[in-house]
Amino acid sequence: MTLPLLERLPPHDIEAEEAVIAALLVDPEAIFHVSPILKGADFFREKNGWIYDACIALWNRDEAINQITVAHELAREDRLEEVGGQTYLAELIRRLPTSVGVEFYARLVKRDSTYRGLIHAATGILQMAYEAPADQEEVFARSEDLLQRLRTGENFREFVHISQVLQSFLEQDAAEEERRALDAILSGYNDLDTLVGGFKRSDLVIIGARPSVGKSSFALGMARNAAINQGANVAFFSLEMSAEQLAVRLLSAESGVDSTRLRLGMQTELEERRIIRATGELSDANIWFDDSPSLPVAELRAKARRLAGERGLDMVIIDYLQLMQGEGSGGRENRQQEISYISRTLKGLARELDVPILALAQLSRAVEHRQPHTPQLSDLRDSGSIEQDADIVMFLSREEMYVTPEQWAQLHPDMPESAYPRGVAQVNVAKHRNGPTGQVDLRFRQRLAKFEDWVLRTDDPAEPVDFDDPGE
Question: Which one of 37, 72, 134, 331 is least enclosed by Cβ atoms within 10 Å?
Answer without folding.
Answer: 134
